[in-house]
Every structure is written in structure tokens, then in C-alpha cells.
Amino acid sequence: MVDPVRQDVVAAARTVVVKVGTNVLADPTGHLDRHRIQSLADQLHRARSGGRAVVLVTSGAIGAGVGKLALGKRPTDLAHLQACAAVGQSALMQLYQESLAPYGVHTAQILLTASDFENRARYLNARNTILTLFEYGALPIINENDTVSVAEIKFGDNDHLAAMVTNLLRAPLLVLLTNVDGLYSDDPRTNTDAKLLATVPNIDSTVTGLAAATKSALGTGGMESKLKAARLVTVAGEAVIMANGSLDGILDRVLAGEAVGTLFLPHGTEVPSRKRWFGLTVRPKGTLRLDAGARQAVRDGKSLLPIGVTAVVGDFGKGDVVAICAPDGAEVARGLINYKSSDAQKICGLHTDRIATVLGSVPYAELVHRDNLVVTG
What is the band of 218 on the pLDDT scale with cuts at 50, 70, 90? Predict the structure, then answer.
């Protein structure tokens, strides 16, 4: 069945990011499933043949390494995980290249860490490289650089990485191919009455509460991570479709506008590229806690004044990204702050006309100007 809303979403998406999880690509022992990879490659080729620019964000390197090394199960310590990734990444790319070779498609491996996104120059360079690969007709295949990533520079999972790539390219659609049919009203493994949600207009606390905090045997994510990734994309004004990647022809059906999986609609105005970088990509260096009035003002698109801030946490400099939080601690926005942390602590809670008394001058009336602020919650 074709869904008119999905048809509109898909028709507008001339650039598509497709993310595929480990459990879609591998069998339970961790060995890569050649049939599934070939099926995915065939569908990616058809999507590209229709005139779309396509990026693939793929998991599977660690899982492939587990299978090739005959470990039986995924290791838990960092050194062994990174060794599995080193062994498995080349095997994963080789299978993609072999699967796409009959179509004359060149695959282009891009391995990234979170620090590549936080550095503005590297961020823009990654974008330019992907756009140039489109010019050459190559298929960019992106994975986290697991062999060198440590806790400080990891994305956490490839759902998050896929969301960041979507925002990097301002792609109108992210397709998450996972091992479930989509988002359900309850856990279908324990509740046979659980219903698949066809469309989610807004990822709020009610929706996130539906995610079971589970992880798969081979992958690193779960429904919670997928909803976080979907929110990161939809808050920027783009759409997300989550569907079961183990079903034959599922990507074809998604891009045909069929009512499969769950569609997460955009629930914000389209965010400019610069704001996507500091508001939805860079990790905050500190936190500002607001009172209720300031929280509403920020959500209404106004600048953040010192009087509305009840607490300043962290060590940051002028121009750093800070998280802006409600009285209960929930993040509502991110922005570039006009003051270093020590000065921000001195003037928080004060009227603007008292800043000069405390600091000796008034460099800025606002802690965060509305032009340097992105509402995230």
C-alpha cells in the first residue's frame, strides 16, 4: 500500500542516507550474509539509478571480525573489539565492492570518529569529499573508525553517526534498516497486542518511553539509540524511516513510498548548515541551567539573558558550545556562549544593567544570542 505522505517525503529526497545494522548483515554467529549484502547492493544501485545521491552508513566490521576469527561471540574489552574491527572492515568493504562491481559502481570507504565532526575544518572537508564522490559516481560507504576510536571520540553507535552524516549533507531522508519492523506501541516480544506505529509526528517523551533499553548480540544499539538518532535528524527539519532490513526488497519499498516501517516526520523548521554543526553535532563544553521563564523564551527563539540562568556548570571559553537546560535538567537548546565560564558564573541571574558593575564592562548583553542558538528539545 502506498502512503501519500511518504510519497511526498520520498519524492523530495534527492539525497538519501541509508544506515544498515550489524544484525541485518550478519547471521547470529557473526558471519556476513552474502545474500543480504548483495540484495542491499542491488537496491542501492536501483536507488542511484533513479537519480538519487546515496550514502551508506554501515555497521558490521566488528561483527565480521568476530565471524572471521571464529570467536563465537562479541568481545567486551576495547583492544579485542578494535582487533575484530581491523580484521572485519576489509572483509566488509570487499563484499560491498564485489556486490556492486557488476553495475560498474566504485565504492569509497570513509572511516570517521566523533572528533572529525567536532573540528570545523575536518567537518567541512568530510562534506566536500562526499560531494566530490557523488560527482565521480562513487558510493560513499561510511563507518566509525573502530580501530582507533576510544570513549572520548566515539559516536556511541552508527545510528548516531548516520544522523550526523544526514545533517552534514542536509539530506532530506535517513533510512534506518534494522532487525525490527519499526517502532511499536509496546515490546512485541512480550506483548502480542503491540501495534506498529506507521507515522510519528513528533519524538517526545511519550515516544522515547516506548523504547526498550535492549542491545543485540552483535550490534551496539537498540531502539533507544535509533530514536535519539531520529530526533537529531527530525529536529533539523528532515525525515526518518525505520524499517526491517532483513526483508527482501525493503529499501525498494521504502523509496517507492510504501507504508512499511515507521515514518518520523520533521518537527522543526529546516536548520541552516552552520547551526547544524554547533547545535546538533559538537559536544557541549558546559551547561547553563535556566529558570522556567528563560526556558520558554529560548524555545520561542529569543536570546538568552543572564537573568534567566540559575547555574553555570563546566569549564569553557568564549565561543564554545554549551547545553542549555530546563529547570529539571532536560536539554532544550545548544548555543555558542559569549562569555568564558568564570565570567558567566559571576553574572548569571543578574539584570543586564548590572553586568558592568561586576565585570567592568558589558561586552555582550546576551549570554547566548538567538543567532547562535538552536532549540533541540
Answer: very low
Average pLDDT on 66-93 reads 87
The answer to whether the CB of 181 falls within 8 A of the CB of 196 is: yes
In sequence order, the 6+-apart residues with CB closer than 8 A to the CB of 92 are: 25, 32, 58, 60, 61, 64, 143
CA distance 117 to 34: 32
CA-CA distance, 97 to 100, in Å (whole number)? 5
Tell me the pLDDT tens digit for each residue of 297-323. Answer: 999 999 999 999 999 999 999 999 999
Domains of the chain: 4-274 (3.40.1160.10), 284-375 (2.30.130.10)
How much is the average pLDDT of 217-230?
A: 74
Residue bearing cell 497486542: 193
| Angstrom distance (rounded) from CA 105 to CA 111 | 19
pLDDT at residue 217, rounded to an integer: 44
Contact 363, 328 (CB under 8 A): no
pLDDT of residue 219 exceeding 80, the answer is no
What are the φ/ψ torsions at residue 371 (nearest 5 degrees)? -70, -15
| Contacts of the segment 325-331: beta carbons below 8 A, 24+ positions apart | 325/287, 325/288, 325/289, 325/290, 326/290, 326/292, 326/295, 326/377, 327/289, 327/290, 327/291, 327/292, 327/295, 329/289, 330/377, 331/376, 331/377
Cα 188 to chain center, whole Å?
25
- The mean pLDDT of 49-63, rounded to a whole number, is 92
The span from the CA of 339 to the CA of 347, in Å, is 10
Q: Take residue 373 and report the three cell numbers written for it.
A: 542558538
The angle at the Cα of 134, spanning 167 to 257, to the nearest 5 degrees, equals 65
Rounded to two decimals, the pTM is 0.89
Query: How many angstroms separate the CA atoms of 371 and 249, rounded?
Result: 44
Tell me the H-state helices in the chain.
4-12, 22-25, 34-49, 61-68, 78-100, 114-118, 120-136, 158-169, 205-208, 223-234, 250-255, 273-280, 292-299, 341-347, 355-359
Residues in the chain: 377
Euclidean distance between the first and the last CA atom of the chain, given in angstroms as a whole number? 33
